[in-house]
Amino acid sequence: MTDLKGKTLFITGASRGIGLAIGKRAAEDGANIVIAAKTAEPHPRLKGTIYTAAEEIEAAGGKALPLVVDVREEDIVEKAMAQAAETFGGIDILINNASAISLTNTLQTPMKRYDLMHQINIRGTYLCSQKAIPYLKEAENPHVLNLSPPLNFESRWFKPHVAYSMAKYGMSLCVLGMAEEFRKTGIAFNALWPRTAIDTAAMDMIGGGQVNRNCRKPEIMADAAHIILTRPARDFTGNFCIDDETLAEEGITDLSTYRHDGVKEEELLPDFFV
Fold first, then answer.
1. pLDDT, tens digit (0-9, with 9 covering 90-100), for 177-233
2. In this model, does residue 144 exceed pLDDT 80?
């Protein structure tokens, strides 16, 4: 399969950032994009809503279904999956992109923040996967893609922010287990993670607007995701992919288009966990 024309992608957290970029790339092929996110009204610090995202998706050539979805709520997720399948005739791909982050150490992480990260990152990924699987079993080339890191259990990735690292690795553990659990069904479960920091609203909040220039654009993740999602699901599952490595496998080694003007490769900020 070379493109995603006619495929239906259910993308959590797709109102902005990497999730939206993945949706727009698939929309260029003529895909159907379910924008499953919480932002229905403009946020004072975060750009974009599910409705502005839908406009961008449709402008890119796809069909959009914006849905207000809290990935922590079972009933809401279940209804959203059913509505997506009813609207587009099924679900072919699930992108578990929604995530919460707090780069705080143990004493500086309130339990409310700990709970939020674990409920969105781990519970949300597990829940959305669970509810999507019955639909994915009916799809021709079903994929689940989690935006989570390779399982590199070194203490240096935990020491500065134990709670966040646990939450992100939990998403990756879903890939490790579900890839084998559902291998015989033909549903692929893979993870994708960036080599460098990515210019998103979350990065803007963390860095105070000073570091975004030294991040790659989210389009690199969108292009890498597109490569993964067009691979045969039965043959490509249980993998922990890095964006630039995935592109290199397809002969794409010039990554200059993903950098901001004037920024050198060596000036890019490396991401966590790689």
1. 999 999 999 999 999 999 999 998 777 766 656 688 899 999 999 999 999 999 999
2. yes
Q: Where in the sequence numbering do the catalytic residues fall?
A: 164
Q: Which amino acid is at 1?
A: M
Task: Return the amino acid letter for 265.
Answer: E
Q: Is the whole-model pTM more than 0.85? A: yes
Alpha carbon distance 8, 119 (integer Å): 25
